[in-house]
UniProtKB/TrEMBL annotation:
The keyword Metal-binding applies. Residues 39-74, 78-109 form the EF-hand domain. Ca(2+) 1 binds at D52, D54, S56, F58, E63. Keywords: Calcium, Metal-binding, Muscle protein, Repeat. GO terms for cellular component: cytoplasm. The lineage of its organism: Eukaryota, Metazoa, Chordata, Craniata, Vertebrata. One of its GO terms (molecular function) is calcium ion binding. It comes from Myripristis murdjan (pinecone soldierfish). The keyword Cell inner membrane does not apply. In muscle, parvalbumin is thought to be involved in relaxation after contraction. It binds two calcium ions. The gene is PVALB. Pfam families: EF-hand_7. This is Parvalbumin.
Length: 109
């Protein structure tokens, strides 16, 4: 399912604008601003699948760096610091990548 069918383009734009500056990314506020916090677990998992570009079942560090492009082609790349902080927040089992249940838990925590 395409991101545009799950989230509103104007919400995505507002959220991307809020974190336009390097090192300003805050995943909690971002998920709230794009409307994911209020979404069902099932729909959050659909967002995950749209972000898992190679359909490996995980969002790896390389995919996470470009995760904002999964929301909009205008999205910036995350810095290495932001990518690592995001991964650390989500990766509860410490395997170095984000699984679908870890992602859902991160959005709803
Ligand atoms: Ca992947």
């Amino acid at each position: 399912m395409a991101m545009k069918d799950l989230l509103k383009a104007e919400d995505i734009k507002k959220a991307l604008d809020a974190f336009a500056a390097a090192e300003s990314f805050d995943h909690k506020k971002f998920f709230e601003m794009v409307g994911m916090k209020a979404m069902s677990a099932e729909n959050v998992k659909k967002v995950f699948q749209a972000l898992d570009v190679d359909a490996s079942g995980f969002i790896e560090e390389e995919e996470l760096k470009f995760v904002l492009k999964g929301f909009s082609k205008e999205g910036r790349d995350l810095t290495d610091g932001e990518t690592k902080a995001f991964l650390k927040a989500a990766d509860k089992d410490g395997d170095g990548k984000i699984g679908i249940d870890e992602f859902e838990a991160l959005v709803h925590e």
